[in-house]
Amino acid sequence: MKFRAVLSMVALLAGAGTAVATPAAADPEPVTAADMAIADACYTWGRTLSEGASGEDVRQLQIRVAGYPGYGGVLGLDGEFGPGTKAAVTRFQQAYGLGADGIAGPATFSKIYELQDNDCTPVDFSYDELNNCNSDWSGGNVSAATARANALVSMWKLQAMRHAMGDRPIDVNGGFRSVACNNAVGGSATSRHLYGDAVDLGAGPQGFCALAQKARDHGFNEILGPGYPGHNDHVHVAHKSSRFWSAPSCGIGARPRADEVPVDY
Ligand SMILES: [Zn+2]
């Protein structure tokens, strides 16, 4: 298993902003030469994953399919392969024309390898794009490592959304903010930008309303867009523990009362 050990080292060295690989579980399916050939410097799965599996490899899979929870859903990134993960894997497989059985095997991993860069970001998004505040992700409401990891999950959600909207570029205007950056732009003290998972989108070729509407299918619990105070010129998508969607000019949510303070910018 020498080659396997080397791959593990590569995963460890890559760091990747998220937790690193843990040793494979007791009885993994053997890794074939073909699997190894397509592995990249980010992360290499060493076994087929299906409902009932658990571990860091499941969590790594969950991050990659976080954009496929179904309308209004948010996939838990808990390392437990339950029905929600199976449904997300199935939607991912359908989106890319793979056999849709909800089991992540070589074909699914191969597609993921194709979609990710060596730093684990999806090919069409980058850490730099999601942070025009500073270079080290420090100074927010969470540790730099957590902010960066949160941004990674948002990028995978955006990658799913981008693909669902015809693979046209999505215009990212910013993401993570330190407290200082947030104060400088007058952001709320509870802004998800302080946690790294908020992303502000420009109109791009899709248009604001199409983006806000589509975000509902791809794991974003917070969506703010046209008609919501301060959001006529961008769409804000983020994670949040409970759902808050408001883009009244796009038919999403109620128009806030005049006395309501925007929860975020
Ligand atoms: Zn925002």
UniProtKB/TrEMBL annotation:
Pfam families: Peptidase_M15_3, PG_binding_1. One of its GO terms (molecular function) is zinc D-Ala-D-Ala carboxypeptidase activity. InterPro entries: Peptidase_M15A_C, Peptidoglycan-bd-like, PGBD-like_sf, PGBDSf, Zn_M74/Hedgehog-like. Residues 124-238 form the Peptidase M15A C-terminal domain. Residues 54-111 form the Peptidoglycan binding-like domain. Keywords: Carboxypeptidase, Hydrolase, Protease, Signal. Residues 1-21 form the signal peptide. The keyword Signal applies. Its EC number is 3.4.17.14. Transmembrane segments: none annotated. This is Zinc D-Ala-D-Ala carboxypeptidase. It comes from Kibdelosporangium banguiense.
